[in-house]
Amino acid sequence: MAIRERKGRKKPFLVYWRNPFTSKLESKALATLAEAEKLDAFVKYQLTYEREAFRREEVEDLALSHVQTLETVFYLYLRDRNFEQDCLGRTLSAMQSILSNYGDTEIEQVDREVLADMLKTLSAAGLKGGTISRKMGIVKAVLNWALRNNYIKSVPLFPVMPKIETARNVPPSPDEVAALYRVALPHLRRVIILGFMFGMRVGPCELFRLRWSDIDIPSRVIRVPNAKKGNTDPWREVPIKQSLMALIENWKAEDKACASEYVVTYKGKPIRSIRKAWKETLQRAGIKRYLRPYDLRHAFATEAIAAGADYGTVAALMGHKSPMMVLRHYQHVKTRQKLMVIESLPQPELAAASV
Questions:
Q1: Do residues 198 and 294 both lie within one domain?
Q2: Domain check: are 51 and 90 in the same one?
Q3: Which position among 91, 116, 170, 336 has the lowest Cβ density within 10 Å, counted as fewest Cβ atoms?
Q4: What residues make up the domain containing 25?
Q5: From residue 243, how far is each of 200, 239, 247 by CA, in Å?
Q6: Angle CA(69)–CA(75)–CA(91) in degrees, nearest 5?
């Protein structure tokens, strides 16, 4: 497996690999490096888990097959959705066990009974409720896509998913955020500000994709690239707080010197993970409780609601289509808010009557 660039061509990026059965070198030319990286990840997955796919002599287009199976429709779905490389890898990994057991099932035969058996198999493997729901959610997305593209006539009724026990982490307080910021490395300081002050998803789906071309300093707006999580808009506008303008302008001046395209980089290169840096920063800040980088986004919602923002506005700033997502997942009612409610309640006369 490799990617080679051939300059001066319309499709300069060539992905090539060796067929494990014919020993022939196969390849495909693509227009962009991003497309090449996605195909490279996909073929690597097939070479590891789906080697039988390379037995086919005709692999030009799975859609030409007379009999469509769950596996072939899944691959067509992936090709149509054009996921980011990281998302593609996670989706392929999540479907590995399902395809090994049910991949040869004709797509029209995937009915309620097959889905129930699929759920039973996943449960027997000892997977947690959230993991099972995520895997079955991909199957449902594939079947919905198959319906829209006329591979099936209807989507079968899905079985009831297992209960998901979600751990609710108390998001970092402003004091904890300040403590983290003081001891953080420069690139992590940017993550802290963008997560806590702008509500971005901390990870490859949003924050690590942010480019300087997405930040309109004269208009004081960041156009955040939306994650593919239900919101069909490609981006959302988040205003820049006036007090943060000087900081962001300084970031831009620093990056202009090294011609950095992305806002968050480490040693001039885009990052994919901050797990190690985050853990070390928590230790230096003296924070012993469990906190995730994603909890910065939860803190944004908490502080915005505590400041009196309505749920619809908070949802729009966070990239949710519905305020219900904020109500269900992001609001952490603070002790001081509860105290304000208690103190505001009318109190009856409690003086004891004389006997």
A1: yes
A2: no
A3: 336
A4: 1-60
A5: 18, 12, 8
A6: 115
What span, in angstroms and rounded, lies between the C-alpha atoms of 149 and 147? 5
Point out which residues pair with 270 in neighbouring strands. Answer: 265
Residues 6+ apart with CB under 8 A from 59: 53
- Tokens read off for 208: 């690590």
- Residue 75 included in any domain: no
Which pLDDT does position 332 carry in this prediction? 61
Residues 27-36: contacts with CB under 8 Å, at least 24 apart: 33/3, 33/5, 34/85, 36/3
**Pick from 260, 264, 291: nearest CA to 275:** 291
DSSP category for residue 47: H
Distance CA 220, CA 60 (A): 48
pLDDT of 223: 95
pLDDT along the chain (355 residues), means of 10: 77 82 75 85 81 58 64 86 76 90 92 96 91 93 93 92 71 94 96 96 92 95 85 86 95 90 92 93 95 93 86 90 74 63 75 58
Query: Are residues 41 and 105 located together in one domain of the fold?
Result: no
Please tell me the predicted confidence (pLDDT) of residue 187: 96
**Rounded distance, CA 331 to CA 298, Å?**
7
Q: Which amino acid is at 343?
A: E
Torsion of CA 98, 102, 104, 105, to 10 degrees: -140
Q: How many CA atoms lie within 13 A of 222 on its CB side?
A: 29
Do you know the residue count of the chain?
355
Predicted confidence at residue 284, as pLDDT, reads 97
Bridge partners (DSSP) listed for residue 266: 269
**Residue 33 and residue 87: Cα distance in Å, rounded?**
16
pLDDT at 230: 65
- Copy the structure tokens of residue 241: 């707080």
Global confidence as pTM: 0.61
Query: Which 3 state secondary structure label does DSSP give 170?
Result: coil
DSSP label at 96? H
Tokens encoding 238: 């988040």
